[in-house]
Amino acid sequence: MLQLFQAGLLLVFLFGRQFLETRASDSSNQRARPSPTPDHQWHEAFDMTEHDADILNDRSLHDVADVYDNFFVPGASGWRDLNMTAIMREAEKQRQDAMQNGHSSRPVFIKQPVIPNTVLKRLSPDIIQNMTAAEVLQLADATEMSYESMTHLLSNLRPQEFDKLLSLSRNYTDFETESPDPTTAKAVIDSCHRHWGPVSQWTVSQVARLGPMLTSLNIEQIKQLNDEVLPEVIKAFARLGFQGQATRTLVLKAKRSWGAIGTWTLDKFTTLGPLQTYLTPQDLKQIQPGQLNFTSLLSLLGSLDLDRGQARAVINIAAGLPEWRWTLEQVQSLGKMTRFLDSRELRAAPASAFASPELLKELLPSDGRGHQQQTKEIARVLKESRGTVNDWTAEDFRSMGRAASGLEVNDLEQLDPSVVQGAIADIADAEYSPRQRNVLIEKYREARGSRDTSMSADEVRQMKGLAVGLSTSDLAHMDPQDVRESMDVFASNANKMKKTQKREIIKQLKEAPGGIQDAIQDMGDMVKELPLRDLDSLCTANFTAAADENSTGVAAAGRMNWTEGQSMKLFRCFKDEVLGSSEGEGGSSADLLTPATIRYMGSMAKGMSCDDVEGFVADDILPTVGAMMEQEGWSPRLLDCTHQKIKASLSAAHDDYTADFTEIEIAALRGQLLKELSVEELNSIPSSHCEMLYSEIGNEDLIGLKRDKRKALTSNALQCLGVDGQANTIEQDTMDIIGNLACDLEADMLRRLSSDVFTGNLYSMQKCCLNIDQMVVIGERLVQEMGSPNQWMSDTISDIGPLLVSLSELEIQNLEEEQFSLVAEDVMVRFAEYKDKWSRYCDVDLRPQDISSREEGFVTMAIKAKDALVAVAQADVSGRKRRDSTYSPTCNEIESLSDGNIAWTVDELGAMTVNTFDSCGYALGEVTGFSDAQLAALLDKAKEAWGQAADMTPDQISQLGHIASKFTAAEIGQLNLTETDTVYAIAQYNIYTSDQLSAGVGRFSELSGLSVTSLDSLDLTALANFLCGLTAVEMEDIASIAYQEAANAIGELRSCDAGQWATLKTKAVDGYGAINTWMPEVFAEVGSVVAGFTTQELSSLSDASIAGIKPHAVSLIPPQTLAAGWSSAQLSKLDQLQAEAVTEEQLAALSQEQRSALLEAEYGDDISLAEIEETTEVVVVEDDGDKDGNGAGNQSAGLVPTIIIMCNLMYRAISIT
Fold it and tell me: Would the pTM of this model clear 0.90, i.e. be above it?
């Protein structure tokens, strides 16, 4: 941190100031300083190809940098010393000039380059060796130094001055606990290498002086640490809770240095502290309780956020101790690990272990995902200890804490309203189902005495997560000030709220004192719902540049999670209002897009355009791009154009520019950008750096990278690491380096994983995009390493998780049911976590047989999970496979299975009780893979439970989800669609026919009494896909202002046709102006409406305009329109995601030249990898709808329904025999 130096060296600065002024007085009458070159572009005085490696000594300084002459004072033999007084005066002059020009609001981090880094990084060492520590500090205060400049200065300081910097920096109050400025810390670390020698030679006393700056060690430096200094470095990382690849490498270094974990003492675990989360389950299984104070170790591990595999490894060790009896004290000693206790272990624990809400917070996480069985088991124990539910007091209910969500709906309905009101603050922080929330909220309303009285802020705060159940109508009746004061609750639960609820909250905030601008910092992810027009009032220097109260390094607005379109708008606001790109100050925004500026902008910087990146100063490209890469989540387009800028800047002197890469370039670009370099460019990087290179790349989420490229990178990494011969066994060292590249190990390579390596990496392999060849090998290895599946225990099944799909159908069926039942929910939750990524990214590059193999495996696994849960629920265990009557699913099974509910047969769904459907039908409505027959059976069950369509209440309709797709158009015309939340709940899905859509919008209009002209933005948002039930002519009556306020919601729809999109396009033109005036963020906001553009409008779009178009919008453009509208040149400007969104029908309409351009857009500089693809079939997975992207009609056309029927028949046949 730069402040660390500034505070620590204050004494030196004050002591030396008088000396500096005296020393500078001799040169105060020197000739006047010439005017700067135009626009402050000092770097233009340099020819990069000629001077890149030059050192500015006396002669070259005189020739090239004459403009800085009065910044240097004569020495004995020429210009040797810096005139710091002159430099500081110039810096102050620039600040004064900026204030006079109206930029007094510029943050302090924006410094004019008094002496630019172009010159600083080339100063002669002779000049630097005459500098003092105080002068370095003053120089850093006057101009923003790049890593190269600061490293050059610090490396060439006299040793005593460098030591003074380090010693005085420790006087800073928060030196040990505050994260350092990354540029400063990295420069210090690398300068130490110059002063102290190689990292391997550093001493404990030297390392101790660096404190938190040690976290800037790169992975190569960490590997060189000697055993004596290792604990000191670990402590520095642990104090900051530092995360990342460097931390992982450090823990690996500790494991190798300290020997087998079974021999570790408690001190070693204590030294690691929070870094113990980097120990694998296999590591933790080696712990020997007899070698250390295991009770203390449990307390230490129990304070950490371990994952399931890690926690289960420790729990199994504890449970295996002779003295372990599941006493209260023993359960408490597990700390946070208690949330991973299975139902058998919970039953063994005393009821006193669940005696207070505080203890339950450890047992049950607030999100509840994957913990419903545990919650229900704890609720059962507590319920039995408290007697009849309708006799409970508020204290009884309060003591349930988060376990209250494990009670059945029928239990909650028995509670007296006053009991709910008295306990609300203690039971609200739990994961309730929609039905449970509705019951509790209604009880709470009743206890308040008046159902019509609006909720106050105090009441909302008491309700916590239950506030998700407040309807849009409830929110509309609240006082705007109460809504404003409740924002912390709403923001923390925004991901569970409907779009209509969030839009109503925003509407209320606009009316509250201070408006949106006052509330925005408390809105969390809800800011994503703000339309661009609402950002107009925020487009000021005061908003975009305001510092966060907790950090001066990032703007408050830069800490918010904006959409891509919002970031585009806010970045331009920042550039215009703060950097002054349109002002005639003699400086351009390109000069001011420095590393510190990019860091300060935070998430707003993601709105940069490729033109902005192209404007980066080439001579400072590495530190600038390095600052970008400190932030995750850059779009594929920005990563690509940043790669091209790097290439253009660094190849000016050398065509084969990556051949000169060192640790500095690799560390600056990080894996996020390195993976964008072509395979050829990466192959040119010296092999001596391949470990660092592929560690950086392997640490990234590579799932969006083209599969061909991933395979090439994996192969090259193994070859570079010397693992290319047939006899080589792949060990953990190699896996640690290649990281996520291991997902693309060929089948033969998977066979060569050592036994320990294979079992130790199961968890990381679960998220991989596997083809059928890989799955076959993994299935074989699972049986080979772990024995017959019918002998597997629950922890083994959990460790394998989604990889169960790699087993054969018979092997899955042979899994022991009781063991599987213990972890079925956990396995299905993890499968759901990866499923969305697989459908969005993996399936684009996988063959049809790869996808079908995974789906077949999932269906078989879902059926086994279902039957395992059912078997445990049966009273007659011996007869569970020969059921004479059709089984009736329970809520416990339904809520545990998630998308695995597709395993229920039509008969089983029909046998479900109405009470079960009433309590947990919502979970079935969320399932995306049901067949038409299953959906029809579920709708019949809904009618049995709630009556015909006309009889269903708004709350009941809201729970139907995908099931609503089986209503006829006539039935939709009878639904009670009076509540906007209800309309949105079923209209958000792209699953309806045109007749159903028309019936939906017609019914809403009928009940609300609103004409199309009267629909406001909230109505348009609520209608969602039902809006596409209006004719193109009817859409002409939509109010332009209503459209513009709802444009970002309408832009996500999929159900309209080209004529409707064309009409909505005219509304967009009314609101935003002519298309040729639209900024890129407008294209992002209007989304799908681009599908209504004419060929002429498409052909007129610039590269910047195309950059704003959403991938799903590309897929909606009519094939002939796209082919005639976009030239080959325009198609080549699509980014990877846009190119991948092109459908088979669109592709068929393109010429060969256009197809080649599209392939170029998809593969970029790795086009050679795609040559083989031109003659093969293109597999396209269409973008999903608002929620899941699969219409009911489309679902039945896939493989899953057929597979379900076949698997159920086969499984029954096997069971009978």
Answer: no
